[in-house]
Amino acid sequence: MQVAALFCVGVWLASSQLGHGQALVAVGAIDLKGNSIMTDSFDSSAPDYPGYWTSSIRKAGGDVVTLSSLTNFNIGNASVAGHVRTGSGGSISLGPSGSVGDLAWVDAFTPGVELGWSSDDAHIAIRNVVIPTVPWTVAPGSGSATVYYYTGTNITATNLHSFSHVITSPGNYTINNSGDIYVGTNCTVNLWVLSSAGTFAPNYLYEAGRGTNAARVTCYVDCTNCTLGTSDSAQGWLAQNMVFLGTTNCTSLKYSGNGDFTAALYFPQANFQLSGGGSGIVDFIGCSVTKTVQFNGHYHFHFDEALAQKGLPMPLFPDLPSNCSALVVVRT
Fold first, then answer.
1. Which residues of the chain have pLDDT under 70?
2. How far apart are the C-alpha atoms of 157 and 150, rounded to whole Å?
3. Which domain holds residue 186?
4. 3-class DSSP assignment, residue 122
């Protein structure tokens, strides 16, 4: 749990932007092109969470934020169940069917921005990713492992898959290729994709287990290009179990899946492109922080509010004026 307070000229201020409490954050341009694009939120840590995403737990916390003061913030015809924010003096543009507001507003396909659901007060300091100074070892080699496919809480299929790396012990591992990766049950793993890999685009980054037995992966992407898909996501619908962090070397992030994806993405120097999209209602669970973001297709983007409670994928702090100081207390 993250607790924080701000002090500014002797006045106590509360801030909702100390943790990552937004679905989509971009330093610069946001362009939501395509049809059937929507954002909302839910809370996987709530007592009534059924263990999988369903429309009955939707909330209007699917905020979309650019830190830019420019006008290149295009909502298009998307339905944003949440707030939209820009930097000081910024503005947004909407298509004829674009809708921003609470659930009642967007579910009624009300065009435009509901009163009180847009602002130009986005002042967030985004930190670059630094590789931890810990002992790193080369990831284990190839092998085969069983992959399970889930729909909600039900197993729909199993398959034996060949992986370039089969990791069954917790630890810190380096990766120098784009091969498929298996992480075993109960394993908490840090992966460092070295810059020499050039492009990181595994067909599978698979986490075994569900619930308290689920694997947990933090992947530091230190190469130029990163492409993710629906098979590179956390089992059990918990984005906190799959966190991708892009260093300053990573300038291109793509998602080309046509199915359900669950992860938290933090790539402050990368242009993020989402292409494809299918006819599902889940599509993308988690959050993203990137340099820019562009949608090109159908996407439903569900922000998991539990990420903000844990300060994931990376703590974000308000960009304070020079006459302010910040005291941040972090508890886990």
1. 1-20, 71, 151-153, 276-281, 315-332
2. 7
3. 19-315
4. coil
Q: What pLDDT is recorded for position 150?
A: 72
Instruction: Give the three-class secondary structure for 151.
Output: strand
Q: Is 11 helix (H, G, I), strand (E, B) or coil?
A: strand
Hey, is 309 helix, strand or coil?
helix
pLDDT of amino acid 6: 30
Query: Alpha-carbon distance 24 to 154, whole Å?
Result: 30
Structure tokens at 67: 């830190």
Helix H or strand E encompassing 107: helix 103-107
Nearest to 181 by CA among 211, 158, 207, 215: 207
Instruction: Determine, yes or no, domain membership for 89.
Output: yes
In the prediction, which pLDDT does 319 show? 52
Q: How far apart are CA 5 and CA 14, in angstroms?
A: 6
Domain contains 3: no
Tell me, yes or no, whether 102 lies in a domain.
yes
Sign of the torsion angle spanned by Cα atoms 33, 19, 170, 153: negative
**Among candidates 254, 217, 251, 7, which has minimal Cα distance to 128?**
251
Residue given tokens 């197993």 in the structure block: 155
The total number of structural domains in the chain stands at 1
The Cβ of residue 158 has, within 10 Å, a number of other Cβ atoms equal to 10
Q: Give a yes or no: residue 325 inside a domain.
A: no
The rounded Cα 274 to chain-centroid distance in angstroms is 13
* 3-class secondary-structure state, position 55: helix
Q: For the chain, how big is the Rg over CA atoms in Å?
A: 19
Cα–Cα distance measured from residue 224 to residue 174, given in angstroms and rounded to the nearest whole number: 16
The alpha carbon of 137 is separated from its chain's Cα centroid by a whole number of angstroms, namely 27
- The SS3 assignment for 127 reads coil
C-alpha distances out from residue 31 to 60, 94, 140, 228, Å: 20, 10, 40, 20
